[in-house]
Amino acid sequence: MATVGPDPVAAPQRHLEAQTRWRPIETAFWVAAATPLLLLPSYLQLASQVAVAALFALSLDLILGYAGIVSLGHAAFFGVGAYGAGIISKYGWGEPLSGLLIAASLAGATGYAASFVIARFRHLALIMITLGMGLLLHEAANSASWLTGGADGLQGVRIWPLFGAFKFDLYGYTAYTYSLVVLFLLFLVARRLVHSPFGLSLRGIRENPLRMPAVGAPSRAHIRKIYTISAVAAGAAGALLAQTTSTVSLEVLSFQRSADVLVILILGGAGRLYGGVLGAIVYLVARDQFSGINPQYWYFWIGMLLVLVVTFLPNGILGGFAQLTASWRRGSW
């Protein structure tokens, strides 16, 4: 009597279904993310910055951690989103939700146009191209001072109250709630995306982009899609920053911002979704504490932290935690 073995087609589907199930620690994490509203009201401004940085890092993780696209100019899309939301509000439309959608769409359109170039290159050439694109957009914004304000920053940004009732004031309750909800919703989209057949294809492209077309996964088309989605998320992060602070400066397009988000992702762990979120918490809280100790040389301590994490946890904090958990389960301690 012939025996029926495991279905090789159903195995990946079962794996994806297992990945999409919510674990108790995930639920606890998002519940804990809301506790600053009650327990730490004096840190809500910092918490808002963490939420924005986490969304920006999540957008980078989609292309770097899952598709293997290294970018040193990801701030270009962050800046397009920030300037998009700021310019719209300056010229009379300060409604935050529609402004967020418009700004994210502008960033997505920019990312889609750039993706046709990005999809053709890998490794060192890709690093240089993304860096060059970021610098070009920075200088374009600096030159168009009639629109962006140039080095003086965009003036006259006025965001209306959320739903006509909740003002973006100095207390930060509205800003943090708004930022956290947007982060959570886009995180759900990213989570569903990476735990899908498309997400599996991205991992295959990361490992070997030349072989993926042989199994029916067009590498360049997939890269264009994920790059556009990543740009939308980065633009939403930039728009959140502009709306919650009512300021937009050239710094949103700077190389420093691109480098910072890369550091955040490395700290947390690339290719793990929660890595960017955890990295944003660690990086911004550490920056806040170190700058309070020594305002001039706080970057020294950030550099030391990065060296220690990369040396002892080469896959980031979450990667190291996963290794410890696996060792504990195997009983190898």
In short:
With 333 residues, this protein is mostly helical.
Essential attributes:
333 residues, mainly alpha, ABC transporter involved in vitamin B12 uptake, BtuC, 15 helices, 0% strand, globular
Question: What is the fold's blueprint, element by element?
Answer:
Elements: H1 10-20, H2 24-33, H3 36-39, H4 44-64, H5 75-90, H6 96-118, H7 123-143, H8 145-148, H9 173-194, H10 197-207, H11 219-245, H12 255-268, H13 274-293, H14 298-312, H15 316-330
Helix pairs in contact: 4-9, 4-11, 4-12, 4-13, 5-6, 5-11, 6-11, 9-11, 10-11, 12-13, 12-15, 13-14, 13-15
CATH class: Mainly Alpha
The CATH topology assignment is ABC transporter involved in vitamin B12 uptake, BtuC
Shape: globular
Which range best describes the helical content: under 10%, 10-25%, 25-40%, 40-55%, 55-70% or over 70%?
over 70%
Oligomer classification = single chain
N→C terminal distance: 45 Å
> SSE order in H/E notation?
HHHHHHHHHHHHHHH
Mean pLDDT: 88
Model regions low in confidence, pLDDT < 50 over at least 5 residues: none
Going by helix content, strand content and strand pairing, the class is: mainly alpha
CATH architecture: Orthogonal Bundle
Largest sheet: none
So how many helices?
Answer: 15
Alpha carbon gyration radius: 21 Å
Secondary structure: number of strands: 0
